Each structure stands twice: as C-alpha cells, then as structure tokens.
Amino acid sequence: MKRQFFGTDGVRGKANTGNLTPEMAMRLAQAAAQVFRANSTQARPTVIIGKDTRLSGYMFESAMEAGFTSMGFYTLMVGPMPTPAVALLTRSLRADLGVMISASHNPFQDNGIKFFAGDGFKLADELEMQIEDLMLHPEKIQLAEADAIGQAVRVDDAAGRYMEFCKTTVDRDFKLDGMKVVVDCANGATYKIAPKIFWELGAEVIRIGSNPDGRNINQKCGSTDPDAMRSAVVAFNADIGVALDGDGDRLILCDEHARVIDGDQIMAAIAADWHARGLLKGQGLVATQMSNMGLERFMLDKGLHLVRANVGDRYVVEAMRAGGYNFGGEQSGHLIFMDHVTTGDGIVAALQFLSVMKRTGKKASELARTFMPYPQSLQNVRLTGLTADEVLGKGAVQAVIKDSESSLNGHGRVLIRKSGTEPVIRVMVEAAEETAVNAHLSRIVAAIEANLA
Known about the structure:
By secondary structure, the protein is an alpha/beta fold. The chain has four domains: 6-156, Alpha-D-Glucose-1,6-Bisphosphate, Chain A, domain 3, CATH 3.40.120; 161-260, Alpha-D-Glucose-1,6-Bisphosphate, Chain A, domain 3; 261-367, Alpha-D-Glucose-1,6-Bisphosphate, Chain A, domain 3 (3-Layer(aba) Sandwich), CATH 3.40.120; 376-449, TATA-Binding Protein. 38% of the residues lie in helices and 21% in strands. It contains 15 helices and 19 strands. It has helices at 22-39, 57-69, 83-92, 125-136, 158-168, 193-200, 227-236, 263-276, 293-301, 313-323, 346-360, 364-367, 388-392, 395-408, 434-449; strands at residues 6-7, 10-14, 46-51, 74-80, 97-101, 110-117, 152-154, 180-184, 204-208, 240-244, 251-254, 260-261, 284-288, 305-309, 327-329, 335-337, 376-382, 412-418, 424-431. The strands form five sheets. The chain has a seven-stranded mixed beta sheet with strand order 1-2-6-5-3-4-7, sandwiched between helices. Strand 8, helix 6 and strand 9 form a beta-alpha-beta unit.
C-alpha cells in the first residue's frame, strides 16, 4: 500500500499545510496511541514528546499532547531536546513510544514528526502502515473514557540525563583539557546541551548557532552549512570545529585548518581505531550508497568490508542489526554507535572522534585524511510538474543514465534517487577522474531537467 503520510524519516512537510497541520498531528498521536496501547504491558501507557526549536514546534507539541492524553496516555514533555536524546529517554523511562517533532536539517518553515518504539529504535514499516490505516479511517480510533484521560507532565531533568549518558560513551578518564573546540548548534535542539558537555569535559568552548529564535534553525549554520564553523575555527585558532544539525542527529567536523571532515572520513578514522583495539564487530562497517568508493577501498585494504544500505539512517540501523555490526552511518553525518545508541547521534559521534584524537595524539587534520576519496559530486534537481518516478521512467533519461554507467565500467558509480523529504531528484556521480564526474553529472542533470514536464 502506498504511503500517504510517512516518508523515509517520519511525517514531514511545510508546517500548517497539507498533511502537517495541528489537526493532523492530533490524529497522528491518537492513531499511534491506539496501535501502541494495544501492545502495552503497562497499566498506564506512556509517551515522551520532544521537539527542536522551530516556531511551529509549540503548535505541534500541544496538538500531540492533546492527542495522546485523549487516548489515556501519560505524556512526558521534555521540550527542546536532540532526537537521540528522545530515543534514549524512551528506553530509560520505560515509555511505550517516543515522539520527536523536527524536520532535522530543513529550514524553519518545515517540520516533521517521527516515532521511536519502546526499545529506542525507529518504527518498522509494518507499524507505520498500521498508524496510516487509522489516519485514513479515524472512525476506528477509540478515545479513552472520561475517567481514563491521560496526564501531561514536564520532565525537568531530561537534559541532565542525556548529558550524563553522552559522557558515559567515552572512557572515564577522557578529558578535553587544553583543547579549543568550536561548537555550532545550528540554532537547534542542542543549543544548551552540546556546549555544556564539551565544557564539562574540559574544553575551551566557542559557541555559535546557539541563540534560537524559532526561525533561524539551520540558517547559515550547522552541519548543512559549515562555513560559520570554519570561520570560527580560523578566528579563534581552534583545534577542531563541531557542527550539528537542527535536531542533533548529524555531525560534520572541520580540522584546525578549517577543512571539512565529512561522515565518511569520520567513520574511517573511528573504524580503524576500533578495529585496532578489537572493538569493531562484524569485521566491517555499514554505510549507504552515497558513501565514497575510497572508504570502501580503505576498508578492504584493512581486511574489512563495507556494507551499503539504502539512504537513511533507519536503513543503516536495520542493516547493522541484521548483520551484527556496531558501527555505521552516512556521509552526511548520521553516525550510529550501536553499543551506545539506537539512532544517529551527533554529540556522541563528536566525542568518539575526539577520543581517537586524544588516544592517538593525532590532530584533526591527520584523521581527516584517513583515506583518499574518489572525486564525487551531488546535485539536486527540483521537481516542477511530474513526479520523480515519472521523470526517471522516461526513456530519454534512462538512456543517458545507462550510457554513463557503461562508460564508467566499474571505475565509478552513478546513483540516482528521489528524496524522501523534499520534491527533488538527487544525482550523484563518482569516478577516479574529476573531469569524468563533472561530464557525466552535467549530462544526466541536463537530461532530467529537459524531462521535468
């Protein structure tokens, strides 16, 4: 059955329009509550609701609070909180499910709603489809009797619980004394938490992107726009820059020379360290189709392997769980450390990278070039009329794509995919020579643009 609400990472869209209105959010809460109430073993079913700093977060938080309490759920409100913190608190507080209100790296006009099951993992497709069925047939939703309506309570120590957890993911004697760290919080959910963690571990912290006003989340800051972090590293002569995204589940770094370190290089540095210490489970790493071929060659040279999952951290997690791996992630900075967390966690990822720096005595610039990347380029083509499937199904488009794949002949890759969160087609080309990358990318993008209508 075709999904009408859920995408690759929950429900997402422009706030107050289409499928993302307060009415929809309340019904979504009620539908999810009915699905989880049926399987709850608790006398009082419980949900945790967190959000990032978007203006519309207040609106959706209230709507979902009403929806869950109307179904008899004890509703724990944690306010602005990173996505991985909501996943953690869902487990540690023994809730039936967790809800994060966020559109991650998108601009403030967008918002989204994603769920975590009681084990802290994102929902399986089957559960999402059960919720969708109730969304489409609200007459099936059974509200609680008047004497069984739930209560809503603020959890005042939620941030402290998560901060202490983050510090447990590194060795007890791990300290950042003498280090100067730029922390860019993207004016998002980590704006209070992240700088405190690094400061408590001994670093001199330069905070940027830590003054949210409801509209400036991800605006010229954060992991998707690292220039502010890079400039601050130069201005303050910092040892490293840490850039998170709006909900704190992504990480991009820069070294002391302000050169960006993406998720692939972060994974390579940590995987090599873990392998040397006997900590890397499964003798490999889970990444996605977007990860650079250089990372794959690096792993093979160490006698390890790289498993490629579909794009999206939920698919990385699924592959990790299926194969018994404890480390994986995406080039975009979603990094999952399964020994500690159940979803991408930017703060934990930064601590792991810093731990490798401290243990090895290497500067960020040394770890930033753990492998030699293949030239790779990505371009988004915005849809204007037809759907992504209709455009990509045209013979003229397919002919150009197949011709490029044939020309690369195993010495490069072409990856075309439709976004699960935006009306765009993403085109990625990778090859040993940059001239080949640019040539094939231009041809494919031109063919897609010529067939948008």
